[in-house]
Each structure stands twice: as structure tokens, then as C-alpha cells.
């Protein structure tokens, strides 16, 4: 076994690997860029080596610097995490040449499987069912058009080296191919330094189901069952679970057998994942193999009781697998929510900034469920523009799916982040949806359920009570500070107005009598003081958490995905309030605003130009993603306020129409 391992990665996965090494008594070294100098991973590792500037191309992607860091610190092995160098066969080979053990599969398996075009050729030859398509490179738009025609629309244009949902575009018609092919090519060249493109049939509304495999250097390969990762936005996973609600034991065994056969065909000798798209009828087609640890590996760990990082280290050290397929079984159900710095209210666009507040729920066993949170950040850390905007991976486990989903909903309620925009309210909305609870998943889920984007959910009757009671408790604390003993108020939640009377024996309890309904809301264990953004209490025996902020005349309160303005007014103010005209939102229909902070890649219109609806106005880049902004109607350009190369802020006016 190794005595010192270097981790060639950052963020939560670096922290994840350190935790296992500590448990196994292995010393750790992390490498870090300028942006990560004060990171949690650097703090936790036994040693840390600075390897360069913040852009990954100058640090985490430079093999020479990683090898030099191993030599300098005497690390015997490298864990690459995911992303960065994890699927680069040349890097694995280079390690071997330098006498350093790569904690991952052998270079031959990576090159056979680590590239989408190559792996599809290989899988087809090994008898694995594949998505119909053109498995080969495509030279130009003309060829892309003729191939798409042959396959039949819709098709998917994909970068062979793609990953993380980048370098993928669906084309429904020739025009989409004309636009999409060069865009995917440019994105692939920029993000992966490899612009090979292929095209395959786009399977509509499928499910994403993948099999975790594990091999050793002695010819053994087992599978650790499936994960379902159908909840995706921009073709990137956001909620995953294990096992899949779709599979029956026969289908599970068939998929597992194909995955193991494919892995065995390339002498696979580490942890890896064979991804499939599956029809609702349980038919399945091979998508790609990820020859590395997967982001969502914790859900598999939670249902199998295995530590995948430990298994990878043991395999790399030459130990044979300590168990066979017959020793493995599924225990309970696990769900993972990826918490991202992104704005769900604005098409999930990436966000950046300092984590002014970062308060995850406590890990460990709760009432009927278990919480695990994998993160690489602390309060005060910066989510920078240089890397993936993932903040944390929150997991829940319980004996059944229903309880695991409930546990996740509760854990999300207890996750508080301030600073960058984040997707916690969105994740909470999904956990409360009947369709998700019943397991009717598809990769189109987000598009189906939020066709006009996410704008929060309408409060349920219970949530109306929670919002009203919380507003009353806040008001009582504030009023008492001003010496007021008033007991009769009117609470307004959105448009719903209720007359209430307060009764309170102590600071930690409040009974709010709903005068027109003949019932009371009884709050106990109130934990809040002015200035706090998190309000905790127990309502009629059930503990809850809400996020609260002062707003004009009252508060903004969010419980899960329901957010409302809550006003607690005197009867007189309530009457006046009702008569106030509703404020119309500012008219932005003649403006093109930057949806996020980023860089202008191209400005495609000029002053005086006539544009048609749907025409490209400009292209922005943020977090290595290109975003095309289009005209929402026919118009004439009156002003252009930015040019290619300009950095722009969120909501900055880029173009004005007459
Ligand atoms: P990545 O390397 O970015 O993970 P994948 O090839 O695994 O790329 O695709 C990412 C996601 O895109 C899949 O999980 C699936 O939801 C969707 N997808 C990929 N290929 C197809 C396809 N041919 N038809 C339908 N959906 C697809
Ligand atoms: P999966 O493992 O499920 O296929 P994705 O494809 O969504 O997950 O994510 C893998 C991607 O994560 C990489 O391609 C890379 O863009 C990104 N990544 C790389 N390193 C890190 C890191 N340390 N933390 C978070 N994300 C990372
Ligand atoms: Mg994939």
C-alpha cells in the first residue's frame, strides 16, 4: 500500500480523496493554483504544492507540473479526481513512465473508452447496444448536414472529447446544424483542446441510467448496480439517485452484464461508469464510458456500503477485489442534489462570488434518514470564474425511496447559502413535485415541468401558514424592541390577507390566532434575532426552517421553493396598503440585457441594423460556456453598448432597440 498520495485536483473531490486517505493512514499532497491558495483542500492536506496561475490550462492541466510535484514530495501515486487530467491516457502513461502509480484505469483502457468516438466503435464491436448514428469524425458543415439527413432529425451534435454536458447540441432541422456544428466545434476546441465532432440520433425523452463498474489488475470486474441521473439541465446532471426507479431485477442484471463485458474487453482495472440512455420501455443504448470516479459516486457508496476511492486505491496498489458479484447487494435508497452557484430563476446561468454565508445541514443520522454533504468550501470562500461552479453535493439515504426523497427535501430546507445565486430553491421544488416523488423521470423532466423556466412555486396551504406564522414571529420581535405591545394585526402573504391576534408567554413561543378561521398557529422553539437570515421554529409540532430578509414594509420569506413578501400591518395600514396601485415592473422589452457576468465573444449587430426575431444579437461567454443572445422580436438597433472582448456585468444593457 502507498504511504503518500498526490491529488491532482481541487474542490470537493480533492477533499473527498483526502478523507479516505486519512482513514487509511495515507499521507496526502494537494496541488493548487493561485485561486485555490487558501482552499479547504489545501488546509486539510498534509502537504500542498503551488502549481501556477488560476486558469486550469496553466495549473491543473499541466502534466509536467503534477509530475514535478510528485517527485518533490515523494508521492508514490496520483489520484486525478474527475475532470482535468483524469481521462487523459497520455497522462496515465506519463505517470507509469516516471514510476508513479496512476490511481485509475490503465492507459489502454482510457484511450479505448475515454473518447466518445473510439468507445462507441469499441462497444459496437463488443456487442453492446449503441445509439444509432455516425460514429466517426465530421469535417465540415456540409458533411454534418448530409449525415444528419441520413440519421434523420432530431440529431445530437457532440464533441468526441466532451464531458460535463459541454460540447453537446440538439439539432431539429438543417438550420440548427448549420448554426450548431461550428458552435459545438468552437466550444470543444476551447474547453477540451480537441475539436473532433460526431453526430448521433437524439433519443427523445429518455432516461439516463448508468452502471458503476469496478475492476482490479487480476482480471476481476464487478458492477455496483445503477444510478439514475435523468434530472438534467443543459445535458448536465443535477439530481441523481441509486438505484433507479425504472429498473427491475432482470433489466438491472442485463445492463450490469453488458457493462461488465465492455469493461472486461478493455481489461478495466479501476472504478468506471458505463452510461446508457434508456427508454421508458426499459430498452437501453450505450452512451459513453467515463473512465474515472464519477461526480455522483456517493449515492452508490450509500447503497453498497463501499468506499469507491478506497477501492480505486487498493486496485491501483495491485490488491485483488475482496468480493465478487454475489457478495454485493443494494441496501436502501440514496439521492444526491448538486448544489451549484447558478441562478435557477434565470435559466440556470452560472453565478460567481463570495460565500458570505455557507451553512449546510448537519451530516449524519436524522429521524428516519441520513445526510451526507461533500463540499470543498467554507464560509467566506470564493466561487471563482475559473472552475466548475459546483458548491456541494448533498446526499440523503433512507431504507426506501419515499423516505430518502423526504429526507432530501428536509436537508435542502436546512441548507443556507448567501453570496452567489444558487439552485437550492429549485432542488427543493423538484423534491416536492408529485411526478418526482412517484419516480416518473426523463431527461426532459426540467423542460417538461418548468416550461417557462423556474420562478418558485405557489405556496401550499401549509406553506401559507408557515409564511404567515414566520412573518408574525418576526414582527413580534421587532415590535417589542420598539416597546409595542400591540396584539392585533393583519398579515398579508402575497395577496392573501388574514386578521390575526398574537398571544405569547415567552420569547420562544407565539400563538397566532386566525380570527376569521377559528384556529391558531402555534409556534414553539423560535430561534431568530434581528439580522439573522435563517429562521427556525416548530409549527404545530413540526420543525421547519425559512430564509428571511427585510423588504419594503415587511419581509421576504422563503420556505423551500415558495417565496413570498409577507407584511404584518395594523388594520389601518392594511386598508391603505390595499388601495396602493401595484407597481409595474420596468419595461425591458426594448433592451438586450446581459443575463450574467461574462465576456462578450462577438457583437453581431450594429446601430441602424434591422434584426428579425430569433436572429443572433451577440454571444457571451461565462464559465467556459457560450451563450447566444437572440432578438425576441423584429426590431431596429438603436444603440450598441458593448463590443467583442468587453467584460460585462449581470443586467448590463448590451443593445437597445428603437
Ligand atoms: P457528457 O460527456 O457531457 O456526460 P454524454 O454523452 O454522456 O455527455 O451526454 C450527456 C447527456 O446528454 C446524457 O446524460 C443524456 O441526458 C443526453 N444525451 C446524450 N446523448 C443523447 C442522445 N443520443 N439522445 C438523447 N439524449 C442524449
Ligand atoms: P459525471 O461524473 O457525472 O459525468 P459531469 O460530467 O457532470 O459528471 O462532471 C464532470 C466534470 O466536472 C468535468 O468534466 C469537469 O468539467 C468538472 N470538474 C472537474 N474538476 C472538478 C472539481 N474539482 N470540482 C467540481 N467539478 C469539477
Ligand atoms: Mg456523460
From TrEMBL:
Positions of the Biotin carboxylation domain: 1-451
Entry-linked InterPro entries: ATP-grasp, BC-like_N, Biotin_BS, Biotin_carboxylase_complex, Biotin_carboxylation_dom, Biotin_COase_C, Biotin_lipoyl, CPAse_ATP-bd
Signal peptide from the UniProt entry: none
Keywords: ATP-binding, Biotin, Ligase, Lipid degradation, Lipid metabolism, Magnesium, Manganese, Metal-binding, Nucleotide-binding
Domain called ATP-grasp: residue spans: 120-317
Pfam families in UniProt: Biotin_carb_C, Biotin_carb_N, Biotin_lipoyl, CPSase_L_D2, PCC_BT
Annotated EC: 6.4.1.3
Recorded catalytic activity of this chain's protein: propanoyl-CoA + hydrogencarbonate + ATP = (S)-methylmalonyl-CoA + ADP + phosphate + H(+)
Ranges for domain Lipoyl-binding: 583-658
Pathway participation: Metabolic intermediate metabolism; propanoyl-CoA degradation; succinyl-CoA from propanoyl-CoA: step 1/3
CC cofactor: biotin
Name this polypeptide is given: propionyl-CoA carboxylase
Organism: Caulobacter hibisci
